[in-house]
Amino acid sequence: MTTETAALLEPRREVGVLSLGDAALRWKAEHPGGRAIACYPVYAPTEVIHAAGMLPMALLGGGTTVELTHADARFQSFVCSIAKSSLELGFQDLVRGVDGFVFSNICDVARNLSSVWARNFSDTFVEYLHLPQNSTSSESSQYLASELRRLASRFAEAFGAPVTDDALRRSIATWNAVRARIRALYALRIDSPEKLPITEFFVALRAATRTAPEESLLRLDALLDTASRRTERPRDRIRVVIEGAFCEQPPPGLLEILEESGCYVVEDDLFLGWRWFTDDVSTDGDPFERLAVAYLDRGVASSTRHEGRQHRSLGVIEKVRRARADAVVFLLPKFCEPALFDYVLIKQGLEREHVPQLVVEFEEKMWTFERTRNEIETFVESMLFD
Amino acid sequence: MTAESTGTKDRKYEGGVHEKSRELMSAWMGEVGRAEAEHRATAALMISGNCVELLRACHVLPLFPEVTALQAAIRHKSLPLIQRAEQAGYSSDNCAYVKADIGLYLDGGMGPGKPIPFPTVTVCNYVGCNVYVKWFEHLADVSGSKLFMLDVPFLRTTEPSEADVRYVVKQIEELIALLECVSGHKMDIDELREILAHSARAEDGYARCKHLCKRTPAPFDAYFDAINMMGPINVLRGTREAAEFFDDAVREFEDLATRGVGPLPEERFRTVVEGPPPYPYYKSFRNLFAKWGAVAVQSTYSTVGGIWEWGFRHDPRRPLESIAEQMLRENLTNRSIVARYQQIKRYVEEWNADALVIHSVKSCRLFSAGQGDMREYFTKELGVPTLLVESDLEDPRYYSEAQLKNRIDAFFESLEHKKLVASGGHR
Ligand code: SF4
Ligand code: SF4
Fold first, then answer.
1. Which pTM was predicted?
2. Residue numbers in B near A348 (CB within 8 A)
3. For residue B318, how far is the Cα from the chain centroid?
4. Contacts of A178 (CB under 8 A, 6+ apart)
5. Is A157 part of the contact surface with chain B (CB cutoff 8 Å)?
6. Of A60, A64, A325, B344, which residue is least crowded by CB atoms under 10 Å?
7. Could you read off the pLDDT of A294-313 as tens digits, one per residue?
8. A314 touching B, CB under 8 A?
């Protein structure tokens, strides 16, 4: 890392390692009277939260920072780590400062978690969104618009924070700008992956999920500027797409190993909800409807959404092509139904297209990477030297 | 008391209901097997909160992959199918129902010329279970059939919103258009009303049977025996035969209740059971409870297709709306796990149960994720004795008889002790 990038990223790393509650409190200290709403993956209705004058955040589990002392009595051993460690954050009061939580229908675990959360922490705001799985019904967009309106009216009820159409239009514009910067950073990595390693990018993106968008814009701009000017020498590595880590976050050590073992990560599905739309959401007309239509028609391919109009593997194949990737590395969270099911159809699609692939299973608390390092190295060597 | 002394060891839990249910279900399977030769349009459908009436009214024969999967398990044929799917890339952590179904296809047991044909259309009634979406995407992929996603918003407030109902009704209309297209039969709304009247009669019968289990002894086991009614209520609902089946079932159970006859020689414990059964070891599992004279007087699994005991019925006067309401609200799977706590609480109170048994299955996170919290609620907050045991509904590798037996025996021993103390029979 150059000194300039290090200077930029160090404060972002600090934001990322704070407990979610502390990150919220820190923001609130600068915004007296402000409120913070955390969204469990994948899609985050950032615009609606922001338009209500609140800070949208991501609830991404406890990673390696929290020991399970309560949550493993609530959720069994065959449940993914992020669900348990997120609940544990609640039990250990590490989310104090966060005023509300939003879950959606990504899987059965998240669905049950939302109501178990509401039961155990009955004084917090919890909302469950049902996002459409039918993308083609003539009623889908109206339905989703009404679901987003319902969320807004819940904010008004609970916090006296109404969402006006104008405020929502402004929020859409702000988040369009943030997403445009993120897209630019992805484009930079596709073009010159040596300029912004995934380990650094991960820090920046994670911090963006707990920072007000106005500040994120400045930070991301600065990163784009510094990274573009970097003069790293490209190495002899393979270019890979990461798939499967859309909800539970891979341990940063695993991403490091990927790079050290000879991969440039040129595309991924990390923090997908924070860059959901593939291009700008329109700021004309009814903003709730605009968001709904964009969700359905311009949403990223995700394992937690049934697109219906194309084969499950096409989203990944398209990413491989666009990012000029050599291979796909499936980072699959242990016990994650959507990731593990989709793996089969995506794998078959990639085989038809002759795209090499490697599977790595992970858990939040994974701490030894040696075996994984060997597997990745062997895979990379087979690709570089065959 | 031992199993031998209660005479349950080799007991057959059979009655007229079981026999008739088998007959009806075999007749349906026979129809499924002939569908291709007879050029009948078929549609795959899920059990939970289903809309089978629409298929009937459009002259499309329903296929239920969940039923095929559970039959494979009960006949001890699921493991090779699961393994076949795992060889193809499915994880050992994926729902084994799906794996058994896909394994059947990979094994050549499903498809043209097979007893289980490919569906003409795959209708995913996405009611609660998120795995359904995956399962039917995969089924549509292997069978090359068109997939229709009937997205039913999860019940996130006590009542579905107007937007929820509108969204579901609209999709139902779109589904009807598709079904008419595949069968070439234009749906007649009066025929649908007639079908719904049969449904309502069956629902009424099923509910009356369940209410009869409030009697002591309960005339049947509302977990293990209810399975024989779940076929007719979820798969055959809407037919005259299913309605008559339930008329007969009510008569049979009323008679048993009047005579004070239950499924076991003696009803010593009344339980409510939560979670699906371990189909690969159905009878062995049942015996573990029967030896203690434990009878399930209510179960949540018996309500995955619909909760009828609290009065909801399909309404021929409001055909599409009542189908939508049933899918949205009147079934277990589309309600939150915490709403399920209230369902169980009501069962424990109104059916006068001594204990709650949670059978936590690895495959089905819809049911199981969070059941530890459920146990906390019932033991700590309500003081209901609660047993939590783990295995699987489809994968025999997760069934450990010795371990289950130890836990079940220890639980009922302690329950027996508590009962004795409470009755002053023991100091
Ligand atoms: S990691 Fe997978 S299973 Fe767990 S909550 Fe996220 S999507 Fe659901
Ligand atoms: S997760 Fe449960 S409800 Fe869903 S398909 Fe599997 S067994 Fe059925």
1. 0.96
2. 89
3. 26
4. A208, A213, A216, A217, A220
5. no
6. A64
7. 999 999 999 999 988 888 99
8. no
